[in-house]
Amino acid sequence: MLEDDLFDGDDARDDRNPGRRGAARPRRRGLRRALVALLCIVVLAVAGVGGYLGFLNSKVDDVKREALLPGGEGGDEEQSTRGDRLVTDGGTNYLVIGSDARPGETASRADVIQLVHIPKDSSAVYLIHFPRDLYVEIPGRGKGKINASYAYGGAPLLVQTLQDLLGVKVDHVAKTDFEGFKQMTDAVGGVRVWADEASSSSGNGGVEIQQGWNDLDGEQALGFVRERYQLSEGDISRGQRQQAWMKAIMTKALSPGVLLNPVKFASFVEAGTSNAVVDDTLTTGDMRNQALALRGVRGEDIHFVTAPFAGYGTTEGGESIDVLDEQGMAALSDALKADDMAGYVQSSS
């Protein structure tokens, strides 16, 4: 299911998602320099700003690294848990995870699951949102919501789940928690976010959101991206809010008021990197090289997609789920394997 391209002028309606309401938004030309930002939400500011290059390199070097890939250190597993050979040469795939852990908590589920696909020629960026309630096969656990795989086995099991689902290798992983969302928002002095629908202060975070533009500080932004119960399509609508926040934070971070303000910029990068964890195979050189390869990407080359689902349902135990669209997922899988997300986006429009 193709999402509105949040980086490109006016929004379009998704004909297969009639509950979604489109609205015109002004073009944001400042987003055209957003390079490595989409690879890892927690290092959004690594966008090739010459005056701060040394500072950025030192901060990215400080990002924590863990064994987030299956197969232990090095993540050399190239087969699905079913024994199928994974496609490893169809571009590069980065899994970005945002957990719902509050400060001091150890157990959590993945509230943000985004697969960032960069084609071999680095001509575009495709950000694929997997709804947290998508009902899938979890290796060794049977059927369950996709975010439960993270609760059961952390990032490695979530990676295995996605690899089984898509048949392609996840090359790298980056994760943060919602506290990072809050701190990055405050670091840039708040953000202006577009909301497709309103929600009242009785919702998550106690923040009043109006349909249209909203000026939010970190605490309010946290409530904005967490809310789902008051939204028309629940988890799907929440995913769209999270993408709207991503657009807003990128717009603000790349604005002259932040880029040319050393105090704000340093605070923003510090907020991002201090909450970041990446896999132990993702080096600073990898990030820099990917950023350089993406230097020609423009706003119209960046696309948001929602992984295909066939509506809503409930399990035998009464859990609400997003029903997997097996045919649609097969088409997404084929596009990733063939490194032809451009064709997928065109056919889904």
TrEMBL record:
Membrane-spanning residues where? 34-55
Q: Where is the Cell envelope-related transcriptional attenuator domain?
A: 109-254
Q: Which InterPro entries does the record match to this protein? A: LytR/CpsA/Psr_CW_biosynth, LytR_CpsA_psr
Pfam families tied to this protein = LytR_cpsA_psr
Q: Where is this region: Disordered?
A: 1-26
- Compositional bias (Acidic residues) at which positions? 1-12
What span is annotated as the signal peptide, if there is one?
A: none
Cell wall biogenesis/degradation as a keyword of this entry, yes or no, is no
Query: Which UniProt key words apply to this protein?
Result: Membrane, Transmembrane, Transmembrane helix
| NCBIfam families found in the cross-reference section | lytR_cpsA_psr
What family name appears in the similarity comment?
Belongs to the LytR/CpsA/Psr (LCP) family.
Q: What is this protein called?
A: LytR family transcriptional attenuator
